[in-house]
Structures are given as C-alpha cells and as structure tokens.
Amino acid sequence: MSERPTRVQPARQVAYDVISAVRESDAYANLLLPTRIVRAGLSPADAGLATELTYGTLRMQGYYDRVIAIAAGRPIDKIDAPILDVLRLGAHQLLSTRVAPHAAVNESVALARMVGSRSTTGFTNGVLREIGRHTPEEWRQRILAAAKNQDDELASVSSHPVWVVRAFRRALEAEGRGAELEELLAADNVAPRVNLIALPGLADAPEGSTPDRYSPPGFTAGGGDPQALVEANDGRVRVQDEGSQLAALALSRARPILPGERWLDLCAGPGGKAALLAAEALTGGATLVANEVVPARAELVRRALAPVPLDVEVWERDGTTIGASHPEAFDRILLDAPCTGLGALRRRPEARWRKTPRDVAELTALQTRLLDSAVDALAPGGVLAYVTCSPHIGETRGIIADALDRHDDLEALSTAEVVQQLAVERLDLADDVLHAQLWPHRHGTDAMFIALLTKNAPAEERD
Ligand SMILES: C[S@@+](CC[C@H](N)C(=O)[O-])C[C@H]1O[C@@H](n2cnc3c(N)ncnc32)[C@H](O)[C@@H]1O
C-alpha cells in the first residue's frame, strides 16, 4: 500500500513550489510567488504565510544549510536537492517562526513523501527533530563556533555569501562607517516597506498616508492594498523605493530646468525612474527619450510612461552605441546602470546566492562602456547621473574615478549637496560630497549610489 501523497497545507505547498522553482529553473521569487498564490486561491492570511515562508527560507538559506549539514551529519551537497528544499523550509519554520514544532516537522515529512523516495521521509523526520532539539540561540552558537574566521562568522549568522560581506565592508569603510556592517547585514534580512510615489504634478499622496522622510513625492499608504491605490490613480501613483526616487530627482532637480532641454534615460527598463523623469520633464518643459535594449523591458517602459501626458520616445537600442550615434545631443542623462543589485537584497531574496564576483567583473566592463557612451551623448554643460542599486565600490566609486581619469572634460558635481537640498529631511551621508550612497540600515532605502557629473565646454568655446 502506498503512503503517497498526503495533502500539505496550501501555503506551505506554494512556498515549496516557489523555492524549488528558484533552485531548478532560476525563477525569481518576487515574480513567481504572486502568480502561484492566485493559482492556489490562497486566502489573504495564507498568502501572507506563503510569502513569509518563501522569502524567509530563501534569505536565510545559507544559514539553514549550515544548520542542516550539522543536524544531518553530512554536507548539503550529499542531500537530494528536493529534500534539501523541504529541510530548508522546515528549518525556517523551526528556527525563525512561531509555527508549532510538531506541525513544522509533520508538514515537512508530508512534503518529503510527495517529492522524495520512501527512505527520505525518515531522513527528513530525523534531521528536523534534531534541529528542533536545540533552541535557535543554541544553533547560532554552534554555527558561530564552526565558522572559519571572523568574516565567515558574519556571513553565516547573517546568511550572506562571504564575498558580499567583504564587499559591503569595503563600501562602508570607504565612507569611514565600517562599524555599521552588522546593522547593514541585519537590514538585508528584513522585508522592506511598500513605498509609493505620487508623480509630481500629476497626483497627490492620499489622505492618511505617511510622507517619506526624504523623497518629497514619496509616501507609505496607511494600510490596504498598495496595488489598489496604483490602479485607482491610473498609474500616476506607483510603487517605488524611496532611494530610486531620490536618484531620479537628483538629476531632474540638480539645477532649474530650462524649457526645451533634451533628456535621456539610457537604461530605462522597467521604467520606474523614467516615469518620474517624464513627470518632471513635463513640469519643466523638457523632452525625454527613454532607451532600453531588451524589447520586453522596453514594453514595460511604455506602460510605465502611459499615465504621463508627455510624448516620450522609447528606443530599443544598445546604450553603448548612443554616444556615437547622438554625440552631445542631451542636456541631462540618467545612466541607471545594469548592476549586481547587491543594494536591493531585501526585496530579491534569492539574489545573494545567484551573484558571484565574476558578475561584478562583467558588469563593471559594461558599466564603463555605457558611461563612456553617456559622456559622449552629453551636451557640454549638461548633467549626467550615474546610478546603481549596488554599493560595491567596483561598480560605484571605481567606475566614476576611472571615467574622471579618462575624460578630461568630465567633472564631478556636489551630488551630496544636491540630494540634501531636494530631500525633505537631512540625510546622514558620508563626508564625501561628490557621491551620495544610500543604505537600507541608515535610510530605509535600497543601497542606491548616485554620482552627478558634468561635461565642460572645450577650452576654445570657453575663451
Ligand atoms: C538597473 S536597470 C534600470 C532600472 C530603471 N531605470 C528603472 O528605474 O525602472 C538597468 C536596465 O538596463 C538594461 N540594459 C542592460 N544593458 C543595456 C544596454 N547595453 N543598453 C541599454 N540598456 C541596457 C537592462 O535590461 C535593465 O533593464
């Protein structure tokens, strides 16, 4: 008689399906989860549970893997991948939630029965019972004791890869704020608030909402479904991180807009900053071109721009070629560069396990080519904003220092001053006035990096 399949509680089933799709087919949890929740017809409470289980398990996967290896008495690469997913989900419930231990173990065993062989149910049961025999604090101490060095300790308990811990430390130390490392790592493991924007001149924050601390058009809703608010305002209210808002506003508000200015968003997909720039361009009498090389993402840009009554051209070109095809054609350029996204780990739970130092090398080469193209496309006297949602100094200060070295006509502007002047409240920024680096733990934003640059007119024109 077969013991298969016992029904698993639907929220856990959805969480398991998403976690295994992330592993098997490189799915993105933030895109897949909402569709799985709808398909399973989960109640709001179960949807909340599925979200917590999925995001929590994926974020803390590195930590749980160390716990599982000890409890199982074998390295995790000796455990079948589907069973490892079951164990990760079970470990999360036992160590980080209030789910009753017997429910966490029984549901995990039922899941193991569905996805593994008969022998794996006993193994799953044994490993999870062993995990449940110790308190979360006891596990923390055991994991710390097994760490190889201080960086490995931080990496293990905060569930980050060691190379990311080191990259964050270097970025904080570059600001003289290395002591904030643990706070930053902890902030990455907390779900970000849903932040919104009322596009300037086109919508207002609704009554009862809480204005953002820094971004003038930013707010959080007092409750209810943010998506419903977006729909009720026909897209003139959007979901957008406060740091992203500040990055786009740093460009549009760096100086007063002269009517007829030509603006370019070089890497615009999916279009969040392009929508804000379009609203700002509309108010100031400027024009905007939004460029995005991936056609499907260019389509998202068109959708994002639709609520703004400005005729924005959307191009689908390789941004590295626009400097040559349109030399000195734009007065303001946003280069929101493709990057590792290490500054947005809060909202992309699996991203920290996917990125590698090799990605940094590939991306910095592309960032340099895009920045060179943007410099060529910038009119003398114009403003260029180089932005990343990564604080990795190879992608931030490194790119800017190298560009300033190679382009004699390029000059850094006082970015920090611009950002302070436009912000509602004063930000706690590093002393370096030429960049603004935002942080989740200090500002409650993604770790956005912003550097404003200008291009001097050639010497003979200035004489
Ligand atoms: C960080 S995202 C931009 C986010 C966007 N500014 C927003 O706020 O919604 C970078 C974008 O650059 C695009 N991209 C990558 N390489 C590019 C290239 N060579 N030319 C133009 N766009 C590129 C990516 O497809 C991605 O959509």
TrEMBL record:
Stored PANTHER family: NOP2 YEAST -RELATED NOL1/NOP2/FMU SUN DOMAIN-CONTAINING (PTHR22807), RIBOSOMAL RNA SMALL SUBUNIT METHYLTRANSFERASE B-RELATED (PTHR22807:SF53)
Disordered as annotated region, ranges: 205-225
Record Pfam families: Methyltr_RsmB-F, NusB
Annotated keywords: Methyltransferase, RNA-binding, S-adenosyl-L-methionine, Transferase
Top-level taxonomy: Bacteria, Bacillati, Actinomycetota, Actinomycetes, Micrococcales
Record GO terms (molecular function): RNA binding; RNA methyltransferase activity
SUPFAM superfamilies: NusB-like, S-adenosyl-L-methionine-dependent methyltransferases
Domain SAM-dependent MTase RsmB/NOP-type, first and last residues per copy: 173-456
Active site: C389
GO biological process terms on file: regulation of DNA-templated transcription; RNA methylation
Protein name: rRNA cytosine-C5-methyltransferase
Residues reported in the UniProt entry to bind S-adenosyl-L-methionine: C267, A268, G269, P270, G271, G272, K273, E292, D318, D336
The family this protein is said to belong to: Belongs to the class I-like SAM-binding methyltransferase superfamily. RsmB/NOP family.
PROSITE patterns listed in its UniProt record: NOL1_NOP2_SUN, SAM_MT_RSMB_NOP
Matches recorded under InterPro entries: MeTrfase_RsmB-F_NOP2_cat, MeTrfase_RsmB-F_NOP2_dom, NusB-like_sf, NusB_RsmB_TIM44, RCMT, RsmB/NOL1/NOP2-like_CS, SAM-dependent_MTases_sf
Organism domain of life: Bacteria
